[in-house]
Amino acid sequence: MALDLQLNDILTLKKPHACGANSWHIYRLGADIGLRCGSCGRLVLIPRSKLERRVRLIERDGESFRPGI
Fold first, then answer.
1. What per-residue confidence (pLDDT) applies to 1?
2. What distances in angstroms separate CA 32 from CA 16, 56, 69, one per listed residue?
3. Containing H/E element for 47?
4. Regarding beta strands 43-47 and 55-60, do their DSSP bridges make them parallel or antiparallel, or are they unpaired?
5. What does the pLDDT read at residue 54?
């Protein structure tokens, strides 16, 4: 089942970015998800299937929850 992701969600992934940040902001939705690094601002596109396996925590409107719970 696909994750319920929305624009401007903040994701915490399993591994940090090369700059050391763990937070990513969603700026694009579709088959590929567009993410912006919370620290350095780098933009990346990740296929939805790969991203769903890497997500540890989703923050939305000040609330945090784990995917699948």
1. 61
2. 19, 18, 23
3. strand 43-47
4. unpaired
5. 93
Question: What six digits make up the tokens of 54?
Answer: 């890497």
From first to last of the 69 residues of the chain, give the pLDDT tens digit.
678 899 999 999 999 999 999 999 999 999 999 999 999 999 999 999 999 999 999 999 999 989 876
Tokens of 62: 């000040």
Q: What Rg, from alpha-carbon coordinates, does the chain have?
A: 11
Q: How far is CA 37 from CA 2, 14, 15, 28, 69, in A?
A: 22, 14, 12, 13, 25
Cross-strand bridge partners of residue 28: 34
Q: Give exposure, 18-50, as e/b (b: 16+ Cβ within 10 Å).
A: eeebbbbbbeeeeeebbbbbbeeeeeeeeeeee
Percent helix, percent strand, percent coil in the chain, to nearest 5 = 10, 45, 45
The model carries a pTM of 0.89
